Amino acid sequence: MTAPATCRAADGSVYARRPPRAGRLPATHRYRFVTHTAQFGLKAPYPGSRPRRARRHDFARRMVAEHTLSADQLIQPYFVIDGDGTEPVASMPGVSRLGIERLVDSAGRAHALGVPAVVLFPVTRDDVKTDDCSGAWAADGLAQRAIRALKEAHPALGVITDVALDPYSPHGHDGLMDGSGYIVNDETVDALVRQALSHAEAGADIVAPSDMMDGRIGAIREALEAGDHRDVMIMSYAAKYASSFYGPFKKAVGAAAAFGKSDKKSYQMDPANGAEALHEVAADLQEGADMVMVKPGLPYLDIVRRVREAFDVPTFAYHVSGEYAMAKAASSNGWIDERATVLETMMAFRRAGCDGVLTYYATDVARWLKEG
Ligand code: PBG
Fold first, then answer.
1. Is the peptide bond before 299 cis (omega within 30 degrees of 0)?
2. Which of 246, 263, 268 has the most ligand 1 atoms within 8 A of CB, as the residue to mutate?
């Protein structure tokens, strides 16, 4: 069978079998050409093509690498506690809850290694947890004090805050609960707006709503504009799934016991759904999100790729606590090489289309990259 002299693209345009040089085509065409090459076998058959030629030497591998990874793409999450101590998190070896002073020190080290931003999760005392979750917007609350301390010590380090009510509710849900145990949407949105505003007032650079209530991005954006915080960004947890991979986090913030056998399926997304994630992202962008996130990370790279292709906006993924715990468990048993597998994991996020990754490994990865 002879190869056809021309081939037809999906949009009906016809290419000669040897298309013009890729470098002279606009990016979109170039992409289509690459697809063609794979689809129609336009590359010389073996031995004209030997893909291994470009894999033999390090210099060549570097020349043809399609993606890069740097500290710029790493965001370090922190668990913050009252007092000046540190408490190791049993479910996440290598991670500790930090008092504000320790947080400031650790964030300074991350920043010095090139990590652009950190994200804060307060671990609140039981007496701060009330049914109305008003601790969430206390001007001198733990989160608000941590934000101020970080911005004072490291003004150039980006501070991202988690907007959700779970650290402030006795039941550990992200929103307000009605008499039947249902998490109510619109009342929760009002509370989230107050929380986001208090973070902005304390100096947060980016507020990151992780609660999955409908309409919260628009409400928060409107309040930030009205409240003279127009440059505060919103990183929306746009596609956040009801995932079992958050288990170690719930233990880290002390929510596991209160939460019991409950779940967040009435507001977080069903892992069975993909198209719905695109609708969530579209809604959040239209409501004023500056950047969007997919969470968890590795099991949802297909969603990252779809979001990247559909919207091409700043796209992040959260390599969550369960993913971290799995990597730690396997590597501490000597079953996998921690550094190699984590670096490969981070590159996988990049290849899928992430601009950045929230990961408990951020500072480690930044150090590994520096060590080379
Ligand atoms: C709660 C919140 C969770 C995480 C970040 N914010 C837990 C949840 O939704 O149950 C999970 C992060 C992780 O597992 O690393 N608003």
1. no
2. 246
Mean pLDDT of 107-127: 97
* Residue 52 domain-assigned (yes or no): no
Tell me the mean pLDDT in the region 38-42. Answer: 66
Q: Phi, psi at residue 63, to the nearest 5°?
A: -65, -35
* Ligand 1 nearest-atom number relative to CA 319: 15
Instruction: Give the pLDDT confidence of 285-332 residue by residue, as tens digits.
Output: 999 999 999 999 999 999 999 999 999 999 999 999 999 999 999 999
Same domain, 115 and 25: no
Task: Note whether 347 and 66 are within 8 A (CB).
Answer: no
- Cα 65 to Cα 83: distance, rounded to the nearest angstrom: 46
pLDDT one-digit tens code per residue, 210-221: 999 999 999 999
CA dist., res. 344 & res. 206, Å (int): 28
Ligand 1 within 6 A of 195 CB?
no
Verify that 32 and 133 share a domain, yes or no.
no
CA-proximal residue: ligand 1, atom 7 (nearest):
246
pTM here is: 0.89
Q: What is the pLDDT of residue 23?
A: 46
Contact indicator for 81, 120 with CB cutoff of 8 Å = no
- For the chain, what is the domain count? 2
Question: Which residue segment(s) compose the domain that 17 sits in?
Answer: 1-45
Please work out whether the CB of residue 243 comes within 6 Å of at least one atom of ligand 1: no
